[in-house]
């Protein structure tokens, strides 16, 4: 039962698409005319097929009993050696199916968009080969039934990100940005690897079955001591700070905007960067063992949200603003996880995918219309000239600002509520502080997003005259995805309306609930109950260690608390959003001198924020340059050349001076040398007799 | 069937003997003849794979007296450890010959004859089960390699060749002394003179003596690996060697050192191996990090790849001395994987050198636009080298790190930093070499990969994918032989009180007291040791 042989089709289609596009690219790479445009449609179709199969699986899940709501398919044994038994298998459950729905769905729209956006590019088919390969890796990441398959996808999406950021590799800066993304991500991956190792060996040490399989690990959660759980949880989160651009590893994401805009929308906004959130949600049982890792996650997340938002206020490159906004929104998602509200975090992943993809594609449409102009100081007044782009963009703007009833409103508001109502066993004051930071960030978000919208679409045109005449709305392949995503940004929030509004239970939570309470895999325990410590059933270990608001997501708990505070907080955040928007219009439309004066007044502080807190410079001065300098000037030129080789050469000179054999050797008479060896051998043997 | 292994080993040497009789002007004949011999050797070794039985014992054994007076035997055989190393050697053989078709046009006759003799030497060393025979093949390998570097090498070839020989000979002579010592100790105990590995493994060597003998063997092997700080011959040898020499050197010869540890040093002297474990682990971790850091700052592409080998082979030694099945199998897998990916990298560097006659990174940039095939192959191989999952490099690296972490979390964690540094130096190379603007006029009209060059690279690339996706057939065949090789070590550790696994984790494991550790199988000694076999 619960077997589904069609799951493998979901990653298979984009893999095939990638191979086709890749082969076409290679085969035509020495021809003047590139491969035919049909490649773009083949790739898009492959993703559409994946979406179809995902929808099929999603539907099949809905028809299952909630406690049994999963489908699995095991494919083959990958490594089976020593105590490692690692197979490749897929698991479709409420969590992975929800992720896959928007990954393949939005992925399809972005593929279609790219047909228009990349139509004049020499690397058209190469682009689709990479894009489809990305879809394949991203699907593996989400659909895998163990941490290693996740890691394969994790590295795979990193590769595609590298290839696509540096897509226009003739520009050295793009190639550098790609390299930076990969290397910074590898730092995170190092943490991820070590985190997995800690779990594996801890299970072994405790007499359990050492494994990376989600269900098998989870069924043995009771075996993992708090210290090991904390260590593993923190190390895994280090991986997440890389992939999902959190402090201290967020520095690669803004640079990643060097890639084509559809890539920014798909990889660096909607899907790949959220995989850290997915991973934490997937490993929720680990984070429930002890409160330390979640506390760290919450603090890092809140700080990231705030810091990135302030940088967003000061940037003029339209894509950079959106990039920092993504970093900030990822902070919100981790904040939700950090207070134990995984479902809320995933809900924000889901809604954010729509409105952020929409805005990135919209910015791409703007850039397209202005012939590669990205500086907002050279935009303005575009509303009437590219109306579809502008109208759809407004939907994304309202959603991210958190205006009811757009999607971002519901998810962000719930994060604020969860932060407020959570409890922290280590730092009792933390929840309110988290709420305050998130609340403040919501206001800043509204300001910088309004700034972006105003500078781009409203006011007087500041477009360079020679570009002004050529402004045009994008073709249908580009505007169609915008319209669909705009509708999504308006509607998808209704999947997760909070219960206190009186619109019925929160369906999104109920859907994901089994994943976060171990119900799904309860049956799996029986097979390994011997390994699980008796008397500590799963539920208890959750209950004792876990001091967050997690329980309040149970439907039953809602009856017990007063909804007044929820109403007040919701009103407050709406007011905050409205105020932010108001400030935005005041500053950037009515009185543009005002922000300039404020910036001038702040002086050094403003420049610090504008220069992204100079984190890149800090890393360069403290890590990169010292390491390169040490390697070149000391390890290589001193240890290798001066010390080791000196000794070797000295021995050589000695031998040369003392022995004829070596002088002969250096003339290259190897016959002599061989003869000497044999003679020596014979001599030794003879003496030995 | 009995003579099959001997045929595989001596086919290249026989072909060399035939080619010696051909007049030296017949360049085409040498090229094609050597290629045919290598292909024939590869084909002849296919039955070794298909006829291989998955168990721990030696197969395809030939055992005959050679020099009876001294107890020297012609004793060869194949197990799960040597099987894939033999196959790797034979896969690389034809590709190496093919890669030299255009590059070598002086002393063509000698070049191919030496390559063929080298091939027999390497194959023989991998299958020899008599220590004297092993030493014989070990020395047979040395001479052709010395000449390949010294005759067909670059500007500084004589210095590099002498350095190579000097290093190697110091190690080999000590190894010879140790072999003889073991031979006499065995005689003292049993009254039998023999170099038979299986017999010598039964010798009861006192710990003190074991340590000296282990060090003597270990030095020879550590130089070949090369283990830090004995590595400085390698960059020079690689930079000066012709492409074919570099490929063989990196692809096969370096593995001779790690193979030596696995086949001889560890099983023969288990107590010493256990005693010396920590220092060797530390040296290998230094090698991983040091090799990567120094690779990062190289200006010559070949030297960069050479230093990357120091780093990669550090993983191999790390796995070998983690004393568990994960580390050991990962190590052996990494030997194969490194042979493919670094072999391919040297081939690619050779291809560009043939066109530009320079390997300075600063002379390049922006090749991607004009050379899409070359770029594809180079980036692909780079990804294999930096351990991207799905390609061969990941499997070995992952298993080694997982095994090493179980043995010592600190060492495993520091070693794992190599995954960051590896990505840094390789991708930085790719960025400077292939990406950016192509602004050097000499790089404008370079020819992309030819059909012959594709033929050399494609098999390696296909194997990289296969070994990345399907490691199971390899691991299954390795496992019994590895278990047997490590049985003496595990016995030593089970008798002593070695608390090894996860020392670091101990404080973390103590905290949650309500959980009773369920220690099943406490009777099984292997289970107690962090690094036991399953």
Kindly, what is the distance between the CA atoms of the first and last residues of chain A, rounded to a whole number of angstroms?
74 Å
- Determine the structural class of chain B based on helices, strands and strand pairing: mainly alpha
**What is the β-strand count of chain B?**
2
Mean pLDDT of chain B: 86
Distance from first to last alpha carbon of chain B? 33 Å
Give me the oligomer status.
Answer: heterodimer
Order of helices and strands of chain B: HHEEHHHHHHHHHHHHHHHHHHHH
Summed up, the helix count of chain B is 22
Strand order of the largest sheet of chain B: 1-2
How many independent structural domains of chain B? 1
Please state the average pLDDT score of chain A. Answer: 85
What features would you describe in this structure?
The complex is a heterodimer of chains A (689) and B (534). By secondary structure, chain A is mainly alpha-helical. Chain A has 29 helices and 2 strands. Chain A has a domain of 75 residues. Chain A has a two-stranded antiparallel ribbon with strand order 1-2. In chain A, helix 3 runs antiparallel to helix 4. About 6% of the residues of chain A have low confidence. Chain B contains 22 helices and 2 strands. In chain B, strands 1-2 form a two-stranded antiparallel sheet. The longest helix of chain B has 34 residues. At the A-B interface, strand 1, helix 5, helix 6, helix 8 and helix 27 of A face helix 5, helix 6, helix 11, helix 13 and helix 15 of B.
How are the elements arranged and paired?
The complex is a heterodimer of chains A (689) and B (534).
Chain A lengths: L8 H19 L10 H25 L8 E11 L2 E9 L1 H24 L6 H20 L3 H19 L6 H34 L8 H6 L6 H18 L8 H4 L5 H10 L4 H8 L1 H4 L4 H21 L5 H21 L3 H28 L17 H15 L5 H15 L8 H28 L7 H4 L7 H16 L15 H10 L7 H4 L10 H8 L18 H27 L2 H10 L1 H7 L4 H44 L1 H8 L2 H19 L1
Antiparallel strand pairs in A: 1-2
Helix pairs in contact in A: 1-2, 1-4, 2-3, 2-4, 3-4, 3-10, 3-15, 3-20, 4-5, 5-6, 5-10, 6-8, 8-11, 8-13, 10-15, 11-15, 13-14, 13-18, 14-15, 14-17, 14-18, 15-16, 15-17, 15-20, 15-21, 16-17, 16-18, 16-20, 17-18, 17-24, 18-24, 25-26, 27-28
Chain B lengths: L3 H17 L6 H24 L8 E9 L4 E7 L1 H24 L4 H20 L3 H22 L4 H34 L6 H4 L6 H18 L8 H8 L2 H26 L1 H27 L4 H20 L4 H32 L10 H4 L1 H14 L6 H16 L1 H8 L1 H16 L17 H19 L2 H24 L10 H5 L14 H4 L6
Antiparallel strand pairs in B: 1-2
């Amino acid at each position: 039962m619960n077997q589904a042989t069609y799951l493998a089709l979901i990653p298979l289609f984009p893999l095939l698409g990638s191979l086709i596009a890749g082969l076409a690219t290679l085969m035509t790479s020495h021809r003047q005319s590139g491969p035919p445009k049909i490649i773009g449609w083949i790739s898009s179709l492959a993703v559409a097929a994946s979406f179809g199969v995902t929808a099929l699986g999603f539907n099949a899940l809905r028809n299952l009993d909630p406690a049994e709501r999963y489908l699995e398919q095991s494919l083959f044994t990958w490594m089976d050696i020593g105590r490692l038994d690692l197979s490749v298998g897929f698991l479709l459950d409420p969590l992975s199916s929800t992720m896959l729905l928007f990954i393949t769905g939005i992925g399809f729209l972005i593929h279609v968009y790219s047909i228009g956006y990349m139509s004049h590019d020499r690397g058209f088919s190469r682009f689709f080969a990479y894009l489809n390969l990305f879809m394949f890796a991203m699907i593996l990441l989400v659909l895998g039934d163990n941490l290693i398959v996740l890691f394969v996808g994790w590295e795979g999406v990193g590769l595609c990100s590298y290839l696509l950021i540096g897509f226009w590799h003739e520009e050295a800066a793009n190639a550098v940005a790609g390299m930076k993304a990969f290397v910074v991500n590898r730092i995170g991956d190092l943490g991820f690897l070590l985190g997995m190792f800690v779990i594996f060996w801890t299970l072994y040490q405790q007499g359990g079955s050492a494994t990376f399989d989600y269900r098998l690990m989870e069924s043995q959660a009771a075996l993992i001591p708090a210290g090991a759980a904390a260590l593993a949880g923190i190390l895994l989160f280090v991986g997440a700070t890389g992939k999902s651009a959190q402090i201290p590893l967020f520095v690669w994401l803004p640079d990643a905007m060097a890639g084509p805009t559809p890539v920014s929308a798909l990889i660096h906004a909607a899907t790949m960067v959220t995989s850290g959130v997915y991973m934490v949600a997937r490993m929720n049982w680990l984070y429930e063992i002890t409160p330390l890792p979640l506390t760290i996650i919450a603090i890092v997340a809140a700080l990231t949200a705030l810091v990135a938002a302030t940088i967003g206020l000061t940037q003029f490159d339209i894509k950079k603003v959106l990039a920092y906004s993504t970093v900030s929104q990822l902070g919100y998602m981790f904040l939700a996880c950090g207070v134990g509200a995984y479902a809320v975090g995933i809900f924000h992943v889901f809604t954010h995918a729509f409105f952020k993809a929409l805005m990135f594609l919209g910015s791409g449409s703007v850039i397209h219309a202005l012939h590669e102009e990205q500086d907002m100081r050279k935009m303005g007044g575009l509303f009437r000239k590219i109306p579809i782009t502008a109208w759809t963009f407004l939907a994304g703007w309202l959603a991210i600002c958190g205006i009811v009833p757009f999607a971002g409103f519901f998810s962000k508001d719930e994060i604020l509520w969860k932060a407020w109502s959570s409890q922290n066993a280590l730092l009792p004051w933390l929840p309110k502080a988290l709420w305050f930071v998130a609340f403040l960030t919501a206001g800043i978000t509204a300001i910088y997003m309004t700034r972006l919208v105003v500078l781009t679409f409203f006011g007087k045109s500041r477009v360079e005259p020679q570009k002004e005449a050529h402004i045009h709305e994008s073709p249908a392949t580009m505007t169609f995805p915008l319209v669909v995503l705009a509708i999504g940004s308006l509607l998808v929030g209704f999947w997760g309306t909070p219960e206190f509004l009186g619109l019925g239970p929160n369906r999104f939570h109920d859907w994901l609930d089994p994943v976060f309470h171990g119900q799904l895999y309860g049956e799996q325990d029986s097979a390994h109950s011997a390994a699980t410590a008796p008397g500590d059933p799963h539920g208890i270990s959750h209950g004792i260690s876990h001091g967050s608001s997690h329980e309040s997501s149970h439907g039953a708990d809602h009856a017990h608390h007063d909804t007044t505070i929820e109403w007040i907080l919701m009103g407050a955040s709406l007011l905050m959003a409205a105020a932010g928007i108001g400030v935005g219009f005041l500053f950037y439309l009515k009185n543009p001198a005002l922000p300039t004066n404020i910036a001038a007044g702040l002086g050094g502080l403003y420049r610090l924020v504008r220069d992204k807190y100079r984190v890149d410079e800090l890393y360069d001065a403290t890590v990169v340059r010292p390491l390169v300098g040490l390697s070149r000037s000391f390890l290589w030129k001193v240890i290798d050349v001066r010390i080791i080789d000196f000794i070797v050469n000295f021995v050589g000179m000695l031998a040369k001076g003392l022995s004829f054999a070596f002088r002969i050797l250096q003339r290259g008479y190897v016959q002599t040398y061989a003869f000497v060896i044999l003679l020596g051998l014979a001599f030794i043997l003879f003496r030995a007799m | 069937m009995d003579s099959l292994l001997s045929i595989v080993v001596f086919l290249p040497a026989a072909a060399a003997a035939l080619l010696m009789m051909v007049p030296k002007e017949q360049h085409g004949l040498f090229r094609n003849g050597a290629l045919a011999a290598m292909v024939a050797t590869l084909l002849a070794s296919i039955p070794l794979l298909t006829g291989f039985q998955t168990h721990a014992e030696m197969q395809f054994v030939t055992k005959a007296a050679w020099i009876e007076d001294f107890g020297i035997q012609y004793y060869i055989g194949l197990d799960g450890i040597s099987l894939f190393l033999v196959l790797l050697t034979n896969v690389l053989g034809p590709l190496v010959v093919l890669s030299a078709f255009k590059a070598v046009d002086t002393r063509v006759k000698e070049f191919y004859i030496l390559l063929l003799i080298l091939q027999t030497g390497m194959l023989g060393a991998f299958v020899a089960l008599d220590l004297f025979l092993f030493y014989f093949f070990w020395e047979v390998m040395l001479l052709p390699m010395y000449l390949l570097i010294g005759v067909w090498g670059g500007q500084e070839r004589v210095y590099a060749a002498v350095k190579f020989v000097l290093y190697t000979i110091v190690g080999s002579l000590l190894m010879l002394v140790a072999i003889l010592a073991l031979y006499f100790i065995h005689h003292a105990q049993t009254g039998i003179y023999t170099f038979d590995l299986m017999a010598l493994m039964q010798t009861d060597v006192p710990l003190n003596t074991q340590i000296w003998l282990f060090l003597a063997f270990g030095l020879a092997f550590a130089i070949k690996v090369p283990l830090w700080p004995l590595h400085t011959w390698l960059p020079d040898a690689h930079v000066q060697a012709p492409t074919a020499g570099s490929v063989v050197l990196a692809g096969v010869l370096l593995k001779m050192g790690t193979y030596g540890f696995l086949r001889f040093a560890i099983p023969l002297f288990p107590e010493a191996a256990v005693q010396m474990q920590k220092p060797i682990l530390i040296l290998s971790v230094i090698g991983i990090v040091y090799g990567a850091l120094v690779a990062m700052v190289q200006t010559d592409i070949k030297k960069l790849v050479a230093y990357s080998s120091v780093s990669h082979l550090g993983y191999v030694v790390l796995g070998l001395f983690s004393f568990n099945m994960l580390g050991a199998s990962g190590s052996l897998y990494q030997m194969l994987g490194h042979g493919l990916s670094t072999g391919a990298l040297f081939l690619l560097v050779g291809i560009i050198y043939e066109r530009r006659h320079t390997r300075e990174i600063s002379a390049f940039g922006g090749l991607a636009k004009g050379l899409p095939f070359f770029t594809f192959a180079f980036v692909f191989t780079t990804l294999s080298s930096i351990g991207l999952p799905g390609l061969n490099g990941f499997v070995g690296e992952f298993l080694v790190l997982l095994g090493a972490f179980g043995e010592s979390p600190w060492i495993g964690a520091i070693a794992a930093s190599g995954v960051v540094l590896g990505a840094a130096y390789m991708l930085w190379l790719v960025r400077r070499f292939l990406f950016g603007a192509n602004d050097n006029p000499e790089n404008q009209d370079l020819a992309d990969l030819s059909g012959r060059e594709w033929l050399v690279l494609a098999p390696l690339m296909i194997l990289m994918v296969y070994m990345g996706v399907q490691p199971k057939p390899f691991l299954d065949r390795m496992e019994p032989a590895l278990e047997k090789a490590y049985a003496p070590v595990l016995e030593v550790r089970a008798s002593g009180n070695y608390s090894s696994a996860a020392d670091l984790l101990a404080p973390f494991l103590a905290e949650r007291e309500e959980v009773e550790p369920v220690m099943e199988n406490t009777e099984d000694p292997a289970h107690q040791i962090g690094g036991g076999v399953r």
